[in-house]
Description:
Strand order of the largest sheet: 1-2-4-3-5-6-7-8
Number of domains: 2
Number of helices: 11
CATH architecture of the largest domain: 3-Layer(aba) Sandwich
Order of helices and strands: EEEHEHEHEHHHHHEHEHH
CATH topology of the largest domain: Rossmann fold
CATH superfamily of the largest domain: Alpha/Beta hydrolase fold, catalytic domain
Helix content: 40-55%
Number of strands: 8
Distance between the termini: 35 Å
CATH class of the largest domain: Alpha Beta
Largest sheet: 8 strands, mixed
Amino acid sequence: MPQARIRGVERVYEVLGTSGPWIAISPGGRRGLVSVKPLGLLIAEAGFRVLVHDRRNTGASGVNFEGDGESREQAEDLLALMRHIGINEPAYICGCSSGARLTLTLAMHHPAAVKALLLWRVTGGDYAAKKLAHNYYHQFIAAAEAGGMEAVCATDHFGAMIKANPANRDALMAMGAERFVASMRRWLAGYQAGANHPISGIPPEAMRRMAMPAIVVPGNDFIHPRIPGQTAHRLLPNSRYAEIFSHDVEVDVDFAAWDAKDPTLAAIFIDFLRDCEAGRR
């Protein structure tokens, strides 16, 4: 799988398809590109070139905790990766959950790089704000304070990253617990500063300024409730809305059910992409 050093971090990525308009897809949570590759392959079969990638601190990419906020750093990474592989024109930017936050962050700071937005399972609400603060930051702060970087390396997430890329262990150990905790607390503060917005991390006034075409597919669980998706649709001035599930489920994330809907989601996105290409959006 291709690798590139992007903004000081080793990044793993893959391009699906050989011709057609570009679309970059970012996974949710801290999942790697394998979680969105099946969707990407379906979209590539419809005549698009699809970039899927392991963000920093996910999958087999490198670890790096610089900057004031995770979504902003990952958005800047994506833009630099796009330029690295030759995407110099506006592209379709697509993301799920934290990947949707990355997508909106890129549109907020670099609107000229974004042809249209494709969002699914947008995050918002008090439950998500508290749960994700723990999942992304608190648990790793607690591990480092209790057992140093050995304990961080033994967590499920960073343990999987080390298995995928053994060099990540050396990078984590070299940080030391004090620097790691300071970085996690800085990113936690950045996350919490925007966690109470209707769409986590993105000011409503910024979304109202995003004039590019958009499509929003809401979630249906505790971390991705339906309301943030509906709100995103209302805030984005040129947005289309489509639901996949008509019922809500009482779980944090229903990965299996959503994975099974990749063909349906791909069909919704492909219709939208074709309308954009035809000038109907």
